Amino acid sequence: MVEFGQIWSQLGSTMATIMFVYTMFDKFFPPHLRTYFRKYTQKFASFMYPYIQITFPEFSGEHLKRSAAYTAIQTYLSANTSQKAKRLRAEVVKDSQTPLVLSMDDNEEIIDEFQGVKVWWLSNHTTNRSQSFSIYPASDEKRYFSLTFHQRYRDLITSTYIQHVLKEANEISVKNRQLKLYTNNPSKEWYGYKRTKWSHIMFEHPARFETLAMDPKKKEEIINDLVKFKAGKDYYAKIGKAWKRGYLLYGPPGTGKSTMIAAIANFMYYDVYDLELTAVKENTDLKKLLIDTTSKSIIVIEDIDCSLDLTGQRKKAKEKSDEEDKPEDSIKKVKDEEEKKGSNVTLSGLLNFIDGIWSACGGERIIIFTTNFVDKLDPALIRRGRMDKHIELSYCGYEAFKVLAKNYLDIESHTLFPIIEKMLGETNVTPADVAENLMPKSIDEDSDSCFNDLIKSLEEAKNKAEEEAKEKVDGENKELKIVKENGELGQEEK
Ligand SMILES: Nc1ncnc2c1ncn2[C@@H]1O[C@H](COP(=O)(O)OP(=O)(O)OP(=O)(O)O)[C@@H](O)[C@H]1O
Ligand SMILES: [Mg+2]
């Protein structure tokens, strides 16, 4: 039996010989012959080893940007093959529903199969030994994935398989991503190190269409519209229209406009960009903000009638020339301009924002305006094509009440329901008012007392409305009487 020590000494001497030959080759072989030698050894190796290898480095380009392909492959591999790998690396990923993502560790190899063809994925890194100074300090470790496959399947792998990996990775990251709520930073704070146009927080509003109190038929119609929009990529391309849809939500305060936006975002799984127009200085800034939004998003302008004086812009331009000579008016004009100094966004700027460069920004975007006073808005702003669907959110009806009762008290029928139904038909209360009454105020408050509270507040609302109507009629009569008396007086004087 050969002794262990003997094996070691033989191995040592073989290694030393190889190293010696290699050093001799590198030092004394003429460089042009060295190139030939390498070329032919590579040819010989590829003949003996018919596999192709593709490398996907983590950072690429001049500024060492993280490669999108590397990230996509990492996502794909961690979802599809992390069960197969024995050594895993755990990473905390921001903005993901699963904050801890497991991926292959260095030198770990796994086999994937695509249409019956085997491919090998290897995760590895190289260490950079060069000492360079850069304003973009590079990490010493350069990670990469390498994909190995038989050269027979070159076309299948380089086109179909890699496409499949990228597509699946995209679907996984969309599924795992957390919704975000963006708000625009004031224009003057956009520039400087690491400044952005939008700031975001995680969007975690619990509103759903199921919990939204409104006429069920109307709700169904909106849901169908959204479903059709989501699946309409090819249809929009066919008719030559940008893949976007505009909704105008209008109705009195507390009828669920903001709640509906949250429900739409959760239903579509879109990010929300809450655009505060008063923080936008110029029309051009508005365009920049739009370009900075991503697809699969909802751009919201709440209370559009209050955001800016968009209603009167056109009229003002027309009246401008008439007012030129009047000194009092010019003082007023200067005052108005001073008041608006924060923002110079005009109606035409906003119209351009909505439809001007939509097509340049890719698709799958919804734009929503909300207002309490739909009549105040310029018709150009809300015409079909810009705001495709006008949705009125109105006072609480019986159907809407039933949804609220189910949400707040988990009750679907009750002896007091007929009375409430009758009273809801006679008076206008918002779902927000009803919801407030249905919410138990203490641990021992039961559903009966909540419904009684609601009935009481409905009675009060009804009496108040009657009183107001009576006062209005009295006021009108009084005015009529004064006009009549003045008229008679005039006649007598005549
Ligand atoms: N239709 C509704 N379904 C369920 N809850 C509602 C509904 N309407 C109002 N609410 C409740 O009332 C509160 C206020 O509603 P919301 O903020 O959506 O009203 P709004 O129409 O946006 O009002 P505003 O015009 O003042 O912005 C919400 O927190 C929600 O709980
Ligand atoms: Mg609102």
TrEMBL record:
Which intervals carry biased composition (Basic and acidic residues)? 319-338
Q: Which CDD domains does its entry note?
A: RecA-like_BCS1
Keyword vocabulary terms for this entry? ATP-binding, Hydrolase, Magnesium, Nucleotide-binding
Cofactor(s) the protein needs: Mg(2+)
The AAA+ ATPase domain extends over 243-397
Q: For this protein, what is any one GO molecular function term?
A: ATP hydrolysis activity
Tell me the SUPFAM superfamilies matching this sequence: P-loop containing nucleoside triphosphate hydrolases
- The segment annotated Disordered runs over 315-338, 466-494
Q: Does the keyword ATP-binding apply?
A: yes
Alphabetized InterPro entries for the sequence: AAA+_ATPase (IPR003593), AAA_N_dom (IPR025753), At3g28540-like_C (IPR058017), ATPase_AAA_core (IPR003959), ATPase_AAA_CS (IPR003960), Mitochondrial_chaperone_BCS1 (IPR050747), P-loop_NTPase (IPR027417)
Q: Which Gene3D superfamilies match?
A: 6.10.280.40, P-loop containing nucleotide triphosphate hydrolases
Lineage: superkingdom: Eukaryota
The chemistry this enzyme catalyses reads:
ATP + H2O = ADP + phosphate + H(+)
Q: Keyword Glycoprotein: yes or no?
A: no
Task: Give the UniProt record's GO annotations in the biological process aspect.
Answer: response to stress
Sequence similarity: Belongs to the AAA ATPase family. BCS1 subfamily.
Q: What is this protein called?
A: AAA+ ATPase domain-containing protein
Query: Which organism encodes this protein?
Result: Lupinus luteus (European yellow lupine)
